[in-house]
Amino acid sequence: MVSPSVSPSPAPHPQSSLHALRSTCLSLLLAQQSHPIGFPILTSQPKPLLSPFCDLQPSEHTLLALWDELRDVIYERLKAEARAELLARSLVEESEAMDEEEDDDGVLEERIQKLEQEVAKLQAEQGVKEEIALGIITGREVQNTIYGMRGDRENGAPASSIAKTRALRSLTHLHSTYLSILTHLHNTLTTLHTHLTHLTTQRLTQTNTNRLLTTHLLKLTSQIASKAHKDNIFDENLRRKVEEMELQVKDVKMRWEVARNVFQGVVAGSGVDWVRVEDGRLRTLILEAGEELE
């Protein structure tokens, strides 16, 4: 049995189908939103950030911003100091290289200077990195200590985290107290060291004075002995020569005393710490000046 042929219905136009679907969807959505028990209007709400800085006062934000600016200034200062040190070293090395003669060892010295520059640069960069790392670690701990407890309470943190924060706060206070004590002890030690240096200078001055007095006593003794010996000389010509030689010796001693006093005055006025020099040659020269001709 043959089924009757069914002619296919014409396909709808795409534009009309799209318009009909859009109208139907819009009407359906509007009806559901206006209905008392319809679907609520869904909006994207970001989740609150679990951060200790989410609920800070404006003054606290300003304080944190000033803290960041301070760390930036310290970082720039360290970079500037490192650059200045590298520039000074390079200028010194260039001046030394210009003064030196070009010989076979010039290439080796140039390599050594380049290596020293690289080492100085690496040391400066390492110092900057350590300073930045220390600032970050210290700032993070301080911020977590000050603002972490309130954020933990608001975010429902466990009691163990709050206890750790309280312990960290007490340790931070203890660290500040110890730091103040250490600073006071350091200042006291510096004062005692300065007083010890002053006493050492006074002792050396007294020792020098005693040496001068002893030398003067020996000189008087020698003069008395020479005078007694001169009285025993009966030849007029020989006695006259002895007196002339004594006058010459006195003139030389007077000149030496003047030169020694000028030298000591120049050293004392220059501000050179001749008491604590490492090799001790300057101190020995000042204390023993004039003893060879006495």
From TrEMBL:
Residues 98-132 form a coiled coil. InterPro entries: CENP-H, CENP-H_C. One of its GO terms (cellular component) is nucleus. Keywords: Centromere, Chromosome, Coiled coil, Kinetochore, Nucleus. GO terms for molecular function: kinetochore binding. It is found in: Chromosome, Centromere, Kinetochore; Nucleus. GO terms for biological process: chromosome segregation; kinetochore assembly; mitotic spindle organization. Residues 165-289 form the Centromere protein H C-terminal domain. Belongs to the CENP-H/MCM16 family. This is Centromere protein H C-terminal domain-containing protein. It comes from Terfezia boudieri ATCC MYA-4762.
